[in-house]
Structure formats: C-alpha cells, structure tokens
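Hi support team,

I'm opening this ticket because the web form for multi-chain structure prediction keeps timing out on my end. I have pasted the exact lines I submitted so you can reproduce it. The total is 601 residues across two entries, so I didn't expect it to be a heavy job. Is there a limit I'm missing, or should I split the entries? Thanks in advance, R.K.
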Amino acid sequence: MISQSAPSIGRMWSWKITASSIVILLFVALLAISFGPVEIGFPKILRTLLGLPGAATGQERTLLLDLRLPRVLLAALVGAALATSGAVYQTVFRNPLADPYLLGTAAGAGLGATLAFTVVAGDVYALLPIFSFVGGILAVLTSFFISGRFQAEPNTLLLSGIAVGSFATAIQTYLQQRNSNALRPVYSWILGELTAASWQVVGWSSFYIVFSLAVLIFISKKLDGLMLSDEESFSLGINPQQLRIIAVAAATLATATAVSASGLIGFVGIVVPHLVRGLTHRVTNRSLTAIAFAGASFLVLADLGARTLLSPAELPIGVITAFVGAPFFLFVLRAKRLAN
Amino acid sequence: MISIEDLTVRFDGQDILTDINLTIETGKWTCLVGPNGAGKTTLLKTLLGVYQYSGSIKDKGFEVYQNQERNVAFVPQHPHIPTGMTVMEYVMLGRAKKDGWGRETRVGRDFVAQVLTQTQLFGMQHRFVAQLSGGEMQRALIARALAQEPNLILLDEPTSALDLHHQISVLNNIEILKEHGVTILSTMHDITLAAMYAENIVVMLDGRVTLAGSASNVIHSPELRKAFDDRINVYTLDGGRPVIMANKDYLSERERPQTEV
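Hello R.K., no limit was hit. The queue was backed up. Here is the completed structure from your submission:
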C-alpha cells in the first residue's frame, strides 16, 4: 500500500520565500543608499534612519535623506508595481510573455508625456506625471471599450490594446515631428529616469501603488482560477469577468502610476515574475508578494547601476533593465520549461 | 432533481436551444447524444449557470443562472491548461469552494490524496499539468471534479481524444461518483459507450430534444436513427448489449454524385 499521508504531498504556500525576498530588498536598499560619489557606511545610514547618536550631519545628511532615500524608495515602488502588474497580466491574459504596458498603458502615457512637452508652456515637469497618468488610463479604457465593454474575452482585449497602442504611438510620432525641440526630453523620458525622485513624487505614487498592490495581493489566491476557462472558474466559485476587471484595473493603476513617476522602464514586468517563478517553482499568483519585493530589489539594483557605472554621468535606467532583460527574454523563449 | 421547462437559449438573435422540457434524475447518469451542432454543449453550460436563458431550470427548486450556492463540477472538452501549475495545485483548485481559495485544510489535503490515488495520479502530483499526456490530463480534470465533492457533475465529451483503454478508465472513474449520490450529466459522441454507462439518454437535434428516456428504450428507438440522418445502425450483441455503428454505404442527398442527363 502506498503511503497516503497528507504531508507527503508538500505544502503549496510558504512564508519563507516572501520573508527572504524582504530581507534581500532591505539589503539591496541599504547598498543603494550607501553607494554613490560619496560613500556612506552602513552603520551611519542605520543610525541616521533610526535617529540614533552618531548620525550623518550637514551635507551628508541632506544627500542621504533628501536625495538617495527617496530615489531608492521610488525605485522600489516602481519595481514592485511593474513586476506585480506583469505577473497579473500574464495570468489574466494566459500569456507568459504579457507585459504591463500591453493594453496601451505605455503608448497612452507616452502620448500624454509628449503632449505635456509640446503643449504646456510653464513648468512641464510638474504636469508631466498628470499628463502621462491620464494618457495611460485613457488608452486602457479605450481598449476595454473597443473590445466590447467590460465583458471581453482576454484575447480580444489584448488585440484592441495593441491597436490603441499603435494609434497613440502614431499621434505621438506626428507631434514629435512637428515639435522637434520636444524630441530629446520625450526620448529621455521613454528610456525611464528616476532623477526626478523627491519625497513629493514618492508620496503620491506610493499612495496609488500600495493601494493597487494591496488589492492584487488580496485577490491573488483567486487569480489561479483565471488560468482556467471561464466555465471552469465559475464552477469553482469565481465570477471570472468581475475578477478579471478588478485585476486589470488594479494592475493598470499601478503601471500608470509607475510610468508617470519614472517614465517607461521596460522588461521588469517580464523578467521578475519569470525569475521568481523559475526559482520557486510556483504558480506566479502564489508568490505575488515575493514578486513585488523581488521587483523592488531588481529596480533598486538597476538604478544603482545607472547611477554608478558611468559616474559622474548617469545612464537611463531603461538601458540597464533592457540590457539585462533582453537576453533574459530570449533565454525564457528558448527554455521551454519556463515559458511553458 | 433538475427540472427544465420551456428552456430557450439565444445568442445574437439566433435560437441555439429551443423549447426544451426535460427532467434530470438525481444520482443517475444522463447522457446527451446527437450530431455536432445539436446544442449539447450549450445545454451543459446553461445548466452550469453561465448562459442567460428564458424559461426555467430549477435545481432543487432554485434557478441555476449565476447561482453560486450550488456545487457543480464542470469538465470541459477543451480545458485551458495553466502554465507552471503542478497536478497537485490543479486538483487542489477543486477544494476552493469547500475550503476557501488558497486555504489548505487537513481534510482537504487528505481528500485530494485519496482522489489522486483513485485516478491513478498519485506519484505524479509534482509534475506540471502542461506536461501531462492527453489521458493523464483528462484524469487530472476528473480528479479536480472529484475533489470538489459536487452534487452535480457536467462532462463535455470526457472521452473524446482518448484511446479505448483510457476511455474505459475515465468512465469508470466517473461511475464511482454515482455511489456517492452525485448526478452525472455528460455529452458523448460514442453512443455505444453512452448506452454502456448511462441510465438515461437524451437525443438532441437542431437545439431541440427529440427523445429522452432510459438508455435501452432510446437506443432501439427509430428517433435515434433519425437524429443521425439514418446514418447509424444498431446491432445487439449476444449478451444483449447494443452496439451502434455508422452506416458506411449511406449517402445523403447532397453527397450523392450528380449524374448528367
């Protein structure tokens, strides 16, 4: 008789993966705050953050608290948003290579940013996040509307997202042709940048990102049901259409916020979910929290690279993520076990 | 008991199911047969509660549309096979309604272990569902349905695309459910197999029910032949078991070669 005791099956949920991803993020964040043109030791950072005696003072304190800390926090927020949204999109669209920018978020936000650079007369950088945020959300709503209100089959939604994206990109290109002076700032925004990080940006973006990630993590266990056909998930007690809308809405809000705070940073949404899935051998949804923390660590590290590799010059962070992401993407395509 | 009265289902202004009146007995296996496009799958999904309809379908006195109070297992003909999910995780999804999403109870895990053994999947639980063969995947689907401990199980062509050996193994697995008082409703292309396992057979044609009754009555009725355009013959084996085979020589009006005068 084969032993049928329950423990032999193995637990599917584990807090260990989430706990280790938090530890990694804390370490990486400390590393990123420490490194730069002026290096600050770990003990001093900790003493400053915790308000203990022996804290950094003067210029060092400003550097630490007003420049590096908000920048690391923003990188972590954006990384978490993009990685989690990517994982959720991959589940909802049942496509392992789905990207958080897929439904037109990126193109819509790009068009919004271009409009800001070409139309706004005053302080462009103050209005840039609003323009790109509205552009991204409008593009996704249009995709939903075209694909048949909110009842759409995932594939129809995907295709209309691509169509809306191409349309927005076409307008964006036209505007750029007409206003060549906007080319350079738009281009640098498209490559992604965290240089504008300030406590104010961290403040408003954390509000939307934390909210949408909380929603996604709250529904993450049910997301497994969306990997089945709609009839199957209904029989398991889910309303698939409703759940899909909540998931896409939250993921889009997180993505649009990330884009308006930092421009278009590519590949995070694909690389991180696959990496975590490959390392933990788990369904993506099971490790959504771990994916959020891993995404945060990934982008904090990428930003550290962007700041220090060509110091004092700064590389666009999108170049770093693409440099790591593109070969990885090909690796995923080749390694069928991961992509399957 | 499920009682269907004056059921009509309409997509884009077109009737897919028309005026169906039918009673499905509790704890029995009822099989829907009929040619492709007769509306068998639509009837199955309507009974699941995902399609809007006019008329009424009452399961224990309650309308079925969007009714999540019921515990109905659905085994589709073409399942979406989730990537990166193991057999264990897949079968555990069946516990969602009883134990809650993402919650693992001791009872649930023991039950799943038992179901895996019953469907000969024990030992494969750590493999990815995407890597299973056709027969194994079908057994995994049945296992998930069993894990659900349903009152009603709906199966859409559970044996198509399986070899004979696996067909019998899957059908035997389904039959076990009857011992637990579960109502079974399936569609099946193979009428011989339907007659072998189901107590009741419902013949469908063009979105209507043309005949319903006990398997032996339906098999020998001329209505069954009519539904298949007179293209089938019913033979009886020595043991009294019916065998239904396609009539090779029959050609319909359309297929007959046109001879020039």
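A quick check on our side: Residues 164-179 of chain B form the longest helix (16 residues). Let us know if the file doesn't open in your viewer.
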